[in-house]
Amino acid sequence: MAFVWKRLLGTLPSLAGIVVITFLLSHALPGDPAAYFAGPAANDESIAQIRAKLGLDKPLIEQFFRYLGDLAQGNLGTSLTTGQPVLHDLLVRLPASLELSVCALVFALAFAIPMGVLAATKPDSWVDHLCRGSITVGSAFPTFFVGLLLVYVFYFLLDLAPQPVGRLNEILNSPPPTVTGAYLVDSLLAGDGATFRAAAGQLVLPSIALGLFALAPIARITRAAMLGALGSDFVRTARAGGLAPRTVIFTYAFRNALLPLVNVMGMVFSFLLGSNVLIEQVFGWQGIGAYAVSAVLASDYAAVQGFVLMMALLYILLNLSIDIASTLIDPRVRFEG
């Protein structure tokens, strides 16, 4: 546990820097939140009154210390666009983004790992070139373009996918009782098979569009790690001992290739959370990405700061989990330094 505490303490300077930079960048956004909140018919006097009410007429340093004081009490402020506490907005929307990112990562792992292993077992063959070429082409397009293309083909032309209206078509299905916030999990806990199938159907296209983005790094790391493991002495010894090729590949080589794969998975999951911003806009997904876009467009300082701070905390917890997983996979890995 010592290295866990060391890692947590080591994140404090990063968090302090994130708080300062986020505050300064959010106040550098174009637009006047007081004017947005007052509405198009407001005059200068009413805008000035709202600016004073929000504390935006105070010096920047005073606003910053007031922000720190609220932050110390767990208060991220109130969103101008929704009128709700920012923390409440983020906690309501976060499960939607996490559910989408996890499904996209599962899709990417289901295809990238077998392709990486297959390419490594037949290096420089047509199988290797086909796997690498397919992965490169699949991940070469922007996620929002892939999302729009999938909607056009599978919903508009073929009518195979549900309407892209977010997590659930609430005209046909009611959301399950909230336990975790993830519709798949909550519908299973409620024993509601119809809602589970509807929620899973809504997840297919955005998960594929987002998962294609993650295919290339996972497949390439898998291939490189497997090539290194297959060329090592212990694998040659295992082959000389007469072990079956399947045993050599999956029991000896793949197990030793897991460490770099787990490390890159953490980085990829972070990228997926960030890429949600575009995919959620395309599919009408009610996650924190769409919330952040609305906040930026409205110069909603509190919402932008809360979003960035929450993402930073998620990245820190994710990296800590990866470090712990690395020590479990390979006991030689230690992080005392």
Automatic annotation (TrEMBL):
Chain coiled-coil ranges: none
Stretches assigned to the ABC transmembrane type-1 domain: 94-326
A Pfam family matched in the record: BPD_transp_1
Key words, A-Z: Cell membrane, Membrane, Transmembrane, Transmembrane helix, Transport
Entry membrane topology: Multi-pass membrane protein
Cellular location(s): Cell membrane
Record InterPro entries: BPD_transp_1_N (IPR045621), MetI-like (IPR000515), MetI-like_sf (IPR035906)
Gene3D superfamilies per UniProt: MetI-like
Bilayer-spanning residue ranges: 98-121, 133-158, 194-216, 257-279, 291-318
PROSITE patterns: ABC_TM1
Lineage top rank: taxon: Bacteria
Similarity comment text for this entry: Belongs to the binding-protein-dependent transport system permease family.
PANTHER family assigned: DIPEPTIDE TRANSPORT SYSTEM PERMEASE PROTEIN DPPB-RELATED (PTHR43163:SF6)
Protein name per its UniProtKB record: ABC transporter permease
Protein species of origin: Piscinibacter gummiphilus
Organism classification: Bacteria, Pseudomonadati, Pseudomonadota, Betaproteobacteria, Burkholderiales
